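Exam revision sheet. Question 4 asks you to relate a sequence to its structure. Input first:
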Amino acid sequence: MSLDWIYYAISWILLTWHSAWDAIGVPVGAVIGTNWAWILAIIFLVVTVRVILFPVFVKQIKSQRAMQALQPKVKELQEKHKGDRETLQKEMMELYRKEKANPLMGCLPMFLQIPVFLGLFHTLKRLNPENGGKTLYGWTVDQFNSASSAKLFTAPISGRFGSTAADLAPLGANTGTVKVIAGVLVLIMIATTYLTSRQMILKTGWAEDPQQRMVQRLMLYGIPVSLLVSGSIFPIGVIIYWVTNNLFTLGQQQWVLRKFPPLVPPKKATTAGGKSPVQPAKTGLLGRKTAQPAVKAPAAAPKVAGPKPGAKPVNPKKAGNRPAKRQG
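Answer key, C-alpha cells:
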C-alpha cells in the first residue's frame, strides 16, 4: 500500500507551520547556528498530532482504569479455569465485552503515531540538495532548498549519528559536530522515553498478570535500550520530534493522571487472627507518620466474694484485734 498520503500530510503540516513562523517574524536564516523556523515547525508538528490524538489518549486512560478494576474478576477466572487456556480466553473476552473494556486500547495512541513517525522519517531523509525530486509531496524548490540547509547548532536536521563524511558533504556539515549533536539528542531521547513509561507504571502500579507485567518491563527497559542502536539511523529532525513528543507525553500524563487517578484497593479494617487494628497514624516530626499502638483495655478489678446468706457482717478492724478462742 502506498504511503504517499502520509508524506503529503506530514509535508503540509511542516510547511504550514514554517510559513506561520516566517510570517510572525522568526528569522529564516541561522541564529546561533540554528534555523529556528524549521525547528519550531517540527516541534509544532508534534503539538498538532497530539492535540488530534488527545481524545484517544483519554480513552486509553479510561480503558486502563477499567482493566485495573477487573483484575479481581480476572484472577477468579484464572483460578477457575486453571490449565484450560481456551476456556479462560473465551471467558475473559466475554468479561471484557460485558464490562466494555478493551485491552488493546492501551496501545492505540502509540500505533496511531507510527505512521506520523515514518512519514517524518521519510520526508527528512530526502532533504538533500542533490536530490532531484524537490517538488514531491507539495514542496516548492525554494522550500526544499531551505529545509535542506536547515541546521540545529550547525548540524543539519537531515543528518544522522551514523552519517559519513560523504553523506554530509552536500549539506556542508562537519562529521564530528553532527555526531556530538545527534549523540546528545539520542541520550535525551532514551532518558525521556524511560521516564514516560516509568511515570505511568508508578502511577498505575505493576500489573499482577505475568503477561501484562512482561509488557510493562518491555516498555520500561526494552524500548529505551533499543533506541541506543536505532537512534544512530534517525535524522536529527526525527530525534527532535521524538524528544518533543516524550516531553509532551510527560506533561499530558501528569494532567490526565490527576484528573483520572488510579484505583486504590480498599484496606481491611482488621488484621489476620482477629487482632486489634493499628490506630490511625499521626503526623510526627518532619511530616513523618508514626503508627500508634493499639489502645489496651483497663485491667478488670479483682472480684471480692460476698458474705454467705445469714452470716453476720464482720468488721475487719475489730476482727484483727479480737483474741483467738481457746480450744475446748
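Marking note for examiners. DSSP finds eleven helices and four strands in the chain.
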